[in-house]
Amino acid sequence: MEWKNIPGSAQVTFVSPSTNAAVSVGVTLPGDAELNGFEARSGAARATGQVRAERRGSHWQIVTRGDLAGFDPTLWWPGLSERVPTPVLLSGRWQADLALPAAATPSAANMRGSATLELADSRIAGVPVQGNSHIERVAAGWSIRADALAAGNRFAVQGLHAANAADERWR
Asked: Do 147 and 134 form a contact (C-beta atoms < 8 A)?
């Protein structure tokens, strides 16, 4: 992790004795928020990324990107392992650039931007999975595309999630 030593910054590492998992975080808070590097790891598994939240008038601009390598989210979210069959091992990357309203609860209607998730050589409930998805705000709503392959079975969807159900388009 790269770290810049500037006023208003901190770097923290947390280690869980029960799972031997560790999280390192570098944060800058000069008015906006920047998580200029984070790493969650357990053995060879890891998730690394960056997040920047910048106040721009009436909204927050959130930009994030990162990578996953054999990452098991059930180690990090309490109770998830009871709801999701294990093992879960995710490898891939994500990227998002979203505008969220500062004064309201974010919803599909008032958010803007795009996000992409790509998975390769992953396992969910022990089943091999790979795929990609992309969402993007367009004038009529959210354009959604996803393509996945799980244990030889292909799933693909492309469509428009619109404010008015009659305007939705899916295939």
From this structure: no
**Spatial distance between the Cα atoms of 13 and 48, rounded to a whole number of angstroms:** 13
Q: How many residues does the chain have?
A: 171
Cβ 146 vs Cβ 161: under 8 Å: no
Q: What is the pLDDT of residue 118?
A: 98
Q: From CA 98, how far away is CA 100, in angstroms rounded?
A: 6
* Residue with more model confidence, 7 or 57: 57
DSSP annotation of 87: P
d(CA 39, CA 73): 13
User: Is-contact 140 158, C-beta < 8 A?
Assistant: no
* pLDDT, tens only, 137-154: 998 899 999 999 999 999
Highest mean pLDDT among 41-45, 76-80, 135-139, 164-168: 135-139
Distance CA 99, CA 53 (A): 9
Structure-token match 């357990």, residue found: 42
* Cα dihedral sign, 5-52-20-79: positive
Q: Which residues contact 44 (CB under 8 A, 6 or more apart)?
A: 69, 70
> Model-level pTM?
0.77
